[in-house]
Amino acid sequence: MKLQHYARQHPRITVAVAVAVVLVVLYLNRPMLSAANAAKLANFPADEHAKFAALIHAFDQAGYDTIITSGYRPGEKGRHSAFRAIDVNVICRATGKQYMMHTSKAEWQATGLPLLAVQMGFRWGGNFTTPYVHNGTTYAGYDPVHFDLPLA
Question: Using one digit for the tens of pLDDT, what is the confidence trace for 6-27?
Answer without folding.
Answer: 667 767 766 666 666 555 555 5
